[in-house]
Amino acid sequence: MQVEWIARFSIPGTVRIKKNSRRLVMAGRYPKSLPSKAYVKWEKVFRDELWVQALRKRIKPTDKPVHVQAVFYYKGPEPDLSGCIESLGDACEGILWENDRQIVSWDGSRKVHDKRNPRVEF
To answer: What DSSP state is assigned to residue 93?
Structure first.
């Protein structure tokens, strides 16, 4: 398989899990499930920083298959790895890849406890 490009990113902050503490709100007569406020806040800060880094590296969203290796440095309670992966995949949509369904592997991804410098490196 041919690699088109390799890029490295480091975004400060502890990843927030999209499915934890979901909120139920009414949309007219129908209930709608929304991500937690903590996730929404994290995603905005994460995407803003990723956007800046991607622009510096002249990276545009790809429609090709993607391989991702991520290290989630967290402080506080230990998050589950699958939740971290889902949050990262969704947060990068439209900036690095068009849809997280393009991700074909997460090989080597892991979590590391770091009280002083929480971040996501991928």
So the answer is: B
Tens digit of pLDDT for each residue in 38-89? 899 999 999 999 999 999 999 999 999 999 999 999 999 999 999 999 999 9
Give tens-digit pLDDT for 4-21. Answer: 678 999 999 999 988 766
Closest residue by Cα to residue 54 from 13, 93, 20, 17: 93
Q: CA 99 to CA 111: how far, in whole Å?
A: 23
Segment holding 41, helix H or strand E: helix 37-56
- Residue 112 belongs to what H/E stretch? strand 110-113
> 44 Cβ partners below 8 Å, 6+ apart?
none
Listed in sequence order, the residues at least 6 apart from 88 whose beta carbon sits closer than 8 Å to its beta carbon are 15, 68, 70, 72, 120, 122
Task: With CA atoms as reference, report the closest residue to 118 among 69, 68, 64, 79.
Answer: 79
Question: Which conformational region is residue 13 in: left (phi greater than 0), alpha (psi within -120 to 50 degrees), or beta?
Answer: left
